[in-house]
Design brief:
The chain is α+β, with helices and mostly antiparallel strands. 30% of the residues lie in helices and 36% in strands. It is built from one helix and three strands, in the order E-E-E-H. Strand 2 and strand 3 form a beta hairpin. The longest helix has 20 residues.
């Protein structure tokens, strides 16, 4: 998994990672005063969040016939 972008939208920090040739976005922070971080390795919390979002997206794609 590789961090490709960090951005702020609607007061939330969004980190985008690349995995299996796909871009995965994860909302990781909800506070305006925490600075953006472009660390290459996600924290364990971010890894769990990203994995959950990735698995949910795969399930949704399978149930809608997208795979």
């Amino acid at each position: 998994m590789e961090l490709i972008n960090t951005k702020r939208e609607n007061g939330k920090v969004i980190k985008e990672y690349s995995r299996d040739g796909k871009t995965i976005s994860a909302t990781v922070v909800e506070w305006e005063d925490i600075p953006l971080s472009n660390e290459t390795e996600p924290t364990i919390y971010e890894k769990i969040l990203i994995e959950n979002q990735y698995q949910t997206a795969l399930i949704e794609m399978q149930t809608m016939g997208g795979m």
